[in-house]
Amino acid sequence: MGRRELLMNTVLALGLLAVPLWAYASDEPYIITLTTRVTILALAGVGLNLALGLGGLVSLGHAMFFGIGGYAAGILASHAQSYTPLMESPFLIEGTQFMPVIWIVALIAAALAAVVTGALSLRTSGVYFIMITLAFGQMFYYFTISWPAYGGEDGLSIYVRDRFPGLNTLDPIQFFAITYVMLGLALFIVARITRSGFGLALNAARQNEARSRAVGIEPYRLRLAAFVISGAITGLAGALFADLNRFVSPAMFSWQTSGEIMVFVILGGVARLFGPVAGAALFILLEEILGGVSDYWHIYLGFLLLLVVLFARGGLIGLLAGEDKRDD
Q1: At residue 324, does pLDDT exceed 70?
Q2: 183: helix, coil or strand?
Q3: More confident residue, 26 or 1
């Protein structure tokens, strides 16, 4: 990472913190909630960026992990609110609204789903990998639509936001603080992975699989591990997103959600540490500004995406930092 990119990352991190603090001082809770949304969506993008940027895995099924995390939060909260156990035999499992427990459940559930789907999907490559991950995501989408126990296509409401010890999660600035810390932890973990032997081997496998095999590196296992970590981070983002909206629905599993997460990464910069942060912030900014001008604001977003793909392959971060990351 060059000095200019490091400087940009610092500015982004401080800017993401400064906006809600200003909004809090100015009594603008909507701006705080908007920034919280950016933070959570950036977290989902950080998860995808690990698989896409470092592993070269173009997944169109990451909404599956996002939805699993969301439904983990929604189901546990609904059982806690109705005082009915999730399961009684062979052992008792009750609902909870305790955030740390929900996060652990979301991480484990998303990771397990990533193990199963990744083990099958990684036996393919290229367009076949894209299509099989898309198929898995759509399977979960249609399953939740036909799951009346948890709302079916109407979704599931979380009437009271889950709680975190020592904080009032209903206070927008305190809930933002939780999501900001979680994003910071995810970025730290991904940065450590990128510099580790695992990350270097994964990057080598992405650049030249044949040469990697020649020196004893097994790409399949590396990619599966990266896919699982990526899915777990995206699942955590889904759990936080459910708490932000106090609502989950099958739309969290849809291919449009997968596409939006990928757009965050491409706009900000594939394989750039803060690429998903910049991309999510730009996406939400465009949605707020252009969405007020026209219902068809996605046309402008598509045009911008076209420009980025054609003339700025490194995304916003790459354009400003002026370095090509793909061959690092």
Answers
A1: no
A2: helix
A3: 26
Say which DSSP state 247 is in: E
* Nearest by Cα to 53 from 286, 307, 214, 261: 261
Which helix (H) or strand (E) segment holds residue 323: the answer is none
Peptide bond just before 172 cis, omega within 30 deg: no
Amino acid at 35: T
Q: What's the CA gap between 287 and 257, in Å, rounded?
A: 15
Q: 156 φ, ψ to 5°?
A: -135, 130
327 pLDDT more than 50: no
Residues 149, 242: Cα–Cα separation, whole Å? 18
pTM for this model (two decimals): 0.93
Region class of 164: left (phi > 0), else alpha (psi between -120 and 50), else beta: beta
Task: Work out the angle between the directed axes of helices 275-291 and 3-25 (0-180°, nearest 10).
Answer: 50
- Using N-to-C axis directions, what is the helix angle for 29-49 and 255-268, rounded to 10°? 90
Q: Tell whether the model's pLDDT for residue 267 goes beyond 70.
A: yes
Q: For the chain, report the end-to-end CA distance as a whole number of angstroms.
A: 9
- Amino acid identity at 124: T
Residue owning tokens 């026209």: 294
And the tokens for 166? 């020592």
Side-chain half-sphere exposure of 285, counting CA atoms within 13 A: 10
**By C-alpha distance, which of 220, 181, 175, 179 is closest to 202?**
220
Alpha-carbon gap, residue 206 to 229, rounded angstroms: 17
**What is the C-alpha to C-alpha distance for residues 103 and 113, in angstroms, rounded to an integer?**
15
The region, left, alpha or beta by phi > 0 then psi within -120 to 50, assigned to residue 126 is: left
Q: What is the mean pLDDT of the chain?
A: 90
- Listed in sequence order, the residues at least 6 apart from 60 whose beta carbon sits closer than 8 Å to its beta carbon are 130, 131, 133, 134, 137, 255, 258, 259, 262
> What is the reported pLDDT for 66?
96
Could you tell me where the beta strands, DSSP code E, fall in the chain? 156-157, 247-248
Give the span between the Cα atoms of 242 and 71, in whole angstroms. 8
